[in-house]
Amino acid sequence: RKKIGVLTSGGDASGMNACVRSVVLYGISKGCDVYAVYEGYQGNRGIQVDGECVLGVVVDGSLVDGGDYIRKMDWRSVTGYLSIGGTSIGTARCMPFKTREGRLQAAENLIKNGIDSLIVCGGDGSLTGADLFRSEWDGLVRELRGADRITQEEATTFKHLTIVGLVGSIDNDMSSTDITIGAVTSLHRICEAVDSVDTTALSHSRAFVIEVMGRHCGWLALMAGIATGADFVFIPEQPPSEDDWETAMCTVARRHRDLGKRKTIIIVAEGALDRHLKPIKVDHIKDVLTDRLGLDTRVTILGHTQRGGSPCAFDRILGTVQSIAAVDAVLASTPETPSPMIGMNNNKVTTKPLMDAVRLTHQVAEAIESQNFEKAMALRDPQFLD
Ligand code: F6P
Asked: Where is this region: N-terminal catalytic PFK domain 1 (predicted)?
């Protein structure tokens, strides 16, 4: 009889609850016991689980602490989960898991609880941590055995750790998948907010500079710009080609005003850069619009409203179908199978090596730093150049 654990990690994203629900319900329907690891990598200590295999679903947090943080789930545990935003089993950006001692503790907690498989739902940071944990597993087990923290039998039984990654992030910044769980809901939130700003901008004939999240990724900003008809968008992946981007922006804004527009909307990704890779600041944009065009300008930073609210239908579906694939991947895994990441490519659920996705995601950041933007886009989406 299989035993499955589920965990969410890193910044919450709408649709994580759909993942947990789906792992629980599908896992149980496949004859598994399912455990939720509360508070992500932080909480995995102390629970006793009998049986030969435990699959943990991690939504970033409780793996290090264990104890009460690991709870057995049944059908009723996830009632109503589909429509709830965020993650009901909690999440954290777990600092101890970033240290080897923290990961050693997490490994001991897993082994002591009989868990040899984890489903981790989180962003690139969480999945990088998961991949590191998997790659170190051998050494961690040997170290635990050497220090007599686990028995020889446990060391033999838990020789391999299966980790399956589900990409939960509003940023849509993970390579090798077209879309991440939570990104579309967040985009809806941004569009609603920009629509609201639009009416007041129109009333006063004002300009608004709106900052959106996304960390080093401009997907939310770019898509929001298209979906709301913004006048100008700044994203990290395509910095303005000229030093004097202020003039380029003002020319566009002026032209739109001359055509009769009563409002000016500039959307800025929080990671936006100029061509020298210096951050482009919303207050500076405001000053430029005020001083050069005489526009009455306000700044709106959308902040964490972008992560809130009920998941849209797409994220409920994405979380549900990808989690079914994640459970199937755990059940099908062998010691030789590389840890998979469940993605979505060309409208199909895909399974790719987690290691490769993590490596490519880091290479994207390097390519942006070296201003090779075409390479960055190709690494994030290998079909980009096709
Ligand atoms: O990665 C998701 C994200 O919302 C980013 O877009 C943002 O930069 C960051 O997390 C904010 O993190 P925190 O919630 O820890 O402030």
From this structure: 1-386
Q: Residue holding tokens 């659920």?
A: 349
68 is catalytic: no
> CA 153 to CA 368: how far, in whole Å?
47
The answer, yes or no, to whether any atom of ligand 1 lies below 6 A from the CB of 216, is: no
Q: For the stretch 323-341, what's the b/e string if a residue is b when 16 or more beta carbons lie within 10 angstroms of its beta carbon? A: bbbbbbbbbebeeeeebbb
Number of Cβ atoms within 10 Å of the Cβ of 59: 36
Consecutive 10-residue averages of pLDDT for the chain (386 residues): 81 97 96 84 44 40 57 92 95 79 86 84 90 92 97 93 94 94 98 98 98 96 98 94 94 98 98 93 98 98 97 98 97 88 95 92 87 83 55
Q: Which uninterrupted H or E stretch holds 22?
A: helix 16-29
Q: Which of 213, 220, 302, 307 is the best mutation target for the ligand 1 pocket, counting ligand atoms within 8 Å of the beta carbon and taking the most?
A: 213
CA distance 355 to 378: 18
ipTM above 0.95? yes
Bridge-partner residues for 62, per DSSP? 41, 43
CB–CB of 145/107 below 8 Å? no
Distance from C-alpha of 293 to C-alpha of 254, rounded to nearest angstrom: 7
What pTM was estimated for this model as a whole? 0.90
